[in-house]
Design brief:
mainly beta; Immunoglobulin-like; eight-stranded mixed beta sheet; 3 helices
């Protein structure tokens, strides 16, 4: 494959060893939190309280979004020992979009793309031990992006694209998972509701050791995109990604770390 290609295309498929972490992740998926309507209800379901505002938790998001279906955000925590970052949008049909848990050298940083129903604050909450920290930014949305679209009968072939490049002592991983991410609120051309179909859990591993675990809701954009960074990787090491959705489908792929 051409080394200048932006992504390496992966094969998908699962063996018995992949199923064990997927089952554990599925059991941990917080249904009550992801079903919660409104920011405060979601925080209560997550048992998050005593939140402090901080500039050490940074959110990059557009001031204005033409299309609420695809809004790119960047999250960075400069707080030492950050364990996880939550993404929430207060005025979405369900407020919790995702939880990103960092392990084994993963930096507390990621880029993803989200859906927003209307103008609202995007809020990040970082967990450091028993303390929680937050920051927010208002994003003006011109077109509702939470309705979804397409058809429940469209052909769905799971696939993944992945790249991992080492620059200095940091490896940057970029991934796209091909998935419809139906919210359960969109309608097809015949005005029928398209059933919810979205990735619930995903995990990134370095040489089979977890570095990033994710719980996701319906507020993540179609064909989920992720950038994140980690240390402790070297050229030739294996980056693996596995995921599972709410309809029992799953996928996996891997790629070797290359020099940047």
């Amino acid at each position: 494959m051409h080394r200048r290609a932006f992504f390496n295309i992966l094969t998908t498929g699962l063996g018995a060893l992949w199923l064990l972490p997927l089952k554990a992740m599925a059991a941990a998926w917080n249904k009550s939190a992801f079903d919660a309507v409104g920011l405060q209800d979601a925080l209560t379901s997550l048992a998050i309280g005593n939140i402090l505002q901080t500039k050490e938790l940074q959110l990059v998001a557009p001031d204005k979004a033409e299309n609420g279906a695809i809004i790119q955000i960047e999250a960075t925590s400069l707080l030492p020992n950050t364990e996880a970052i939550y993404v929430l949008v207060d005025k979405n049909p369900t407020a919790l979009l995702g939880k990103y848990e960092f392990k084994n050298g993963a930096q507390s940083f990621f880029v993803t793309r989200i859906k927003m129903a209307e103008t609202s604050d995007v809020t990040l909450v970082a967990k450091v031990g028993e303390q929680f920290y937050a920051t927010s930014k208002k994003v003006e949305v011109l077109e509702n992006g939470c309705g979804g679209g397409g058809s429940a009968n469209e052909k769905f072939e799971p696939s993944m694209k992945l790249r991992a490049k080492l620059v200095g002592d940091v490896t940057e991983v970029k991934a796209i998972i091909i998935h419809p991410m139906h919210t359960g609120r969109g309608k097809d051309d015949l005005n029928n509701i398209i059933p919810a179909h979205f990735i619930q859990t995903a995990m990134v591993s370095l040489n089979d050791k977890p570095v990033l675990e994710m719980q996701l809701g319906t507020g993540i954009s179609k064909n989920p995109y992720l950038t994140f960074r980690l240390k402790n990787a070297k050229v030739g090491d294996k980056i693996s990604v596995i995921w599972a959705d709410n309809q029992g489908k799953s996928g996996a792929g891997s790629v070797d770390v290359t020099a940047g």
